[in-house]
Amino acid sequence: MSRSSSVEDIPEQCKDLFTQDGVLLKACLGRPVTDLNSIGMLCIVQNQDNTKCIEWRPNDLITIDSDTQDQEWAVVNTIGITMSYAKGRRQRTLSGNITSDYATARARIIKIPIDELKTFRVTRNNQQMQFSTKPGVWQTTFYFQHGNAEIFVAYLKNHVKTAKTRHDRNTYVVVEPNIETQVLNKSFAELDIFTENTTDVVWNLVSNFKQRPYETTMEAFSKLTDIVYYGNEGMNGKRDVSEEVADLLTKSMSAMEDATTVTKNDEYEVISVKPTLPQRPYIPRGTPLSTEKWEGLQDTEGRVTEVEGVKQLIFRGGVAHSIRQSVWKYLLDYYPWHMTHAELRALTKKRTEEYFSMKLQWRSMTEGQEARFSEYRDRKSLVEKDVNRTDRTHPFFAGDNNPNLVVLQDILMTYVMYNFDLGYVQGMSDILAPLLLLLGNEVDSFWCFVGFMDKIATNFDMDQAGMKHQLLQLQQLLTFASPELASHLAAKDSGNMYFCFRWLLVWFKREFSHRDIMRLWEVLWTSLPCANFHLLICVAILDAEKDILISKDYGFTEILKHVNDLSMCLDVDKILSTAEGIYHQVVSAPHLTDQIRIILGLPTLNISTSTHSESDEPTTSKVEANGTVKGSVFAQDLDEDTLEYNGLQICIVTKTVWALLA
Fold first, then answer.
1. Given strand 110-113, what is the order of strands in its sheet?
2. What is the spatial distance between Cα 406 and Cα 209, in angstroms, rounded to a whole number?
3. CATH number of the domain enclosing 626
4. Is 505 in the same domain as 421?
5. Residue 131: is its pLDDT beyond 80?
6. pLDDT category, 38, cuts 50, 70, 90?
7. Is 497 found in the same domain as 437?
8. How far is CA 198 from the centre of its chain?
9. Residue 130 gets which letter from DSSP?
């Protein structure tokens, strides 16, 4: 009869510097086939002699005490290794009992000394990683089942100097360190300024944020403070974000900032005059697109004849609620603008068949199939959790056994089958809910949801490149439009704009009522008057709060609280009017940079085309001294007329469309 040893019986021989769960061993030279396709933990370890190695441990090395881990948030529930601090250094502690097969499992550990590592390669969307200690031979291959290898590679680069090969940009060669590099690395190690000096909470947040950006942002981030995602709804009107949590968030976001350099010269000082923006015009909102105007813009067979004109009418005033069900299908690319009524009926029939065919794929999956399909099972579980907490205070989704929740879940599950590469990411239920509320039809809601997701697909990139890019562009726009506020945010550790993450991810869904978000979304779907107008919406909201944020000297915590308290307190028409005014103010600035032009989709100054004026300047708005607008960038490839509206002169596509607006 074997005896299970206690944790204390095992001497501490090494120190875990970094660990990543859910790593599959795909190939390893010299190992039996039975060892392959096993799940384990990939670590960077410091040995007793201060040498370092890459170590893979199988999951069955240690059993876990179920009380020591929150199963809901565990990535791999069979892991019993946790991190704790002892005298400021990261130490390894073991939770649970050593199994009877401990010796056998320990023999399966794979170690790769870092000083012997020659090359490594990252492929398959950063999910597969191979290591080599001999030129031309890949000895081990690992597959990262949860997230990707990005954070592991980033941490590995703290310990080895690498360079990408010319023939394969996915392959890294380890550069042999010289004496100076070794001395410098030793100095840094003695200073103890790297990641092992941060708290476990911060490290795990940063690590998970890079591996699983959306689950972490919308789950773990929210678990620290519901107010970041759910606002007042999740906190019952209370604001309870502690200084400690705010500090953790600040440190975690700062850890992900790209490095910047500052060059100074003590011999001279350059004093420059800050350029100022022209006066911002006030542009009133128009009336919604009415039934009469909508029907008047279609021919006898149902084709929409003035597509750009319709979009401009929608941009100026939105859509009357009575015709939203029809108009939204066009705005979301479900219905092509050029199709007749008969062609649309045929398209609807075809799309209905496609939808139910995809729905049948997951509805007919047996329990056995589901048990062997972990990715599908995980996504289904996440959908179920989100559906049960999506807009439950709204009458349409309120109450137990609500059939609308069943439809909401069915649509999201069918989308998983439609786009399995993306699947489901938390936040998508927020996007779908208003569509289902308005359209009421399962098939129409699905295809409109597909169209909406196509517009914001970069929000849900696994590497989070799309969100990072938008946050950077927002920071650049704010710096140009409101440099004083941008400077204040940067000084308060908020320059990364991460407090706007929720706004951008779900397009302000949690900031407005259902009625107002419908108005805002349909305006944004027109893509007028420029690219990335949703970023100018962010600038308009922040600009309205500038005096409060600066005069009260709000820091990170107060900024976070204040921004979340804006939920359901914003005037959508005022914000739209302000955002359009900021647009005209920005594009009229004499010092408008190519950086801002690119963000707004305007031609850069070094681009010359025959359609531009003799000076090759792009068509931009001019703001007169009285604050009125002269000229506009709406549809540069169309014939435009400059007409007057309520004292304003604005370019419009045709006089016919403008008459409909008036």
1. 110-113, 52-58, 38-47, 14-28, 140-144, 128-132, 119-123, 171-175, 161-164
2. 31
3. 1.10.472.80
4. no
5. yes
6. confident
7. no
8. 25
9. E
Contact 622, 631 (CB under 8 A): yes
Q: Is the pLDDT at 151 greater than 90, yes or no?
A: no
504: containing domain: 465-661
pLDDT in tens, 258-291: 434 444 455 555 545 567 889 999 999 999 999 9
Q: Let me know: does 441 contact 334? Beta carbons within 8 Å.
A: no
Cβ-contact 211, 147 below 8 angstroms: yes
**Nearest Cα residue to 157 out of 49, 52, 252, 57:** 52
567 torsion bin: left (phi>0), alpha (psi -120 to 50), beta (else): beta
The total number of structural domains that make up the chain:
4
Cβ density class 466-488: b for 16+ within 10 Å, e for less: bbbebbebbbbbbbbbbeebbeb
Judged against a pLDDT cut of 50, whether residue 313 lies above it is answered with yes
Separation CA 431–CA 452 (nearest Å): 8
C-alpha distances in angstroms, 207 versus 5, 40, 212, 307, 482?
32, 17, 8, 47, 33
Name the nearest CA neighbour of 499 among 543, 558, 569.
558
Distance CA 155, CA 44 (A): 9
Write the single-letter amino acid at 107: A
Confidence of residue 82 (pLDDT cuts 50, 70, 90): very low
Token readout for 199 is 């708290």
Beta strands 140-144; 161-164: pairing state = unpaired
The CA–CA distances, whole Å, from 382 to 190, 224, 405, 462 equal 44, 19, 14, 16
476 in the same domain as 407: no
- Who has greater pLDDT, 193 or 11? 11
**How many helices and strands (H and E) does the chain possess?**
27, 15
Query: Residue 393 corresponds to which amino acid?
Result: T
Give the per-residue pLDDT at 272: 52
CB neighbour list of residue 625: distance below 8 Å, 6 or more residues apart? 279
**Could you give the C-alpha distances from 634 to 165, 387, 530, 619, 631, in angstroms and in order?**
46, 39, 7, 9, 9
How far CA 178 is from CA of 155, 171, 449, in Å, comes to 20, 22, 56
Question: Both 57 and 169 in a single domain?
Answer: yes
Strands 52-58, 110-113: parallel, antiparallel or unpaired by DSSP? antiparallel
Burial class (CB in 10 A: 0-12, 13-18, 19+), 491: exposed
Distance (Å, whole) CA 213 – CA 407: 27
* Neighbouring C-beta atoms of residue 525, cutoff 10 Å: 22
**Is a pLDDT exceeding 70 seen at residue 5?**
no
Alpha-carbon span 152 to 17, nearest angstrom:
11
pLDDT confidence of residue 245: 45
Pick the last residue of a domain from 421, 455, 489: 455
Rg (CA), the chain: 28
Residue 638, pLDDT score: 39
Model confidence band, residue 236 (pLDDT cutoffs 50, 70, 90): very low
